[in-house]
């Protein structure tokens, strides 16, 4: 089975003026990405957040749904949120995966912008045939800064529709990208595979 992780990156990302910032948490992003990770059998979901006050908020939220009153109330959320881990940087997330899996992940950035050298979904799938873990990296705010891209080994080709507009929420982008990488087709599902 492929070993796949997600990262939701709050730093380094761009703001509207293309300055590098750390963004604030959006609670629904944590829930929705955790549910994507759980639905597709991913191995973990990293919340990358360096700001202390935001880290406390994230830690409280994860604990509330993992083991606190929220988890007791809604076991589906608890199960999904059990996959969440908080790190201060992308490097820390990659180190954690290396420690858990015994080898560093192939880190694959995502973006709405076409970049030269971007790789296809099938190219990502080929990398995991040899058992190397894969970390799919998502941005927040106005997207991953170049320095985050530089920390990744590859960049996935953007999701595009028929027109020019392709600025998806990170929740939609994560659902589509992980389904393209790991989802079964209708035909497979209908055949009970
Ligand atoms: N405030 C926005 C929200 O509500 O999610 C955050 C936008 S943030 C730039 C969205 C992230 O989703 C990007 O950094 C990227 O990881 C991913 N994303 C968005 N559109 C995409 C596309 N067309 N193709 C691939 N990834 C995309």
Description:
There is one protein chain. This protein is α/β, with parallel strands linked by helices. It is built from nine helices and eight strands. Strands 5-4-1-7-6-8 form a six-stranded parallel β-sheet, with helices on both faces. Strands 2-3 form a two-stranded antiparallel ribbon. Helix 1 (27-39) packs parallel to helix 8. The longest helix is centred in the N-terminal third of the chain and has 15 residues, at 52-66. The model has no long low-confidence stretch (mean pLDDT 94).
Give the gist of this structure.
The chain has 9 helices and 8 strands. It is an alpha/beta fold and 193 residues long.
Write the layout of secondary structure elements.
Layout (H helix, E strand, L loop, with lengths): L3 E6 L3 E2 L5 E2 L5 H13 L4 E5 L3 H15 L2 H5 L1 H7 L2 E4 L2 H12 L4 E4 L11 H7 L6 E5 L7 H5 L3 E2 L14 H13 L3 H5 L3
Parallel strand pairs: 1-4, 1-7, 4-5, 6-7, 6-8
Antiparallel strand pairs: 2-3
Helix pairs in contact: 1-4, 1-8
The chain binds S-adenosylmethionine.
S-adenosylmethionine (SAM) binds next to α8.
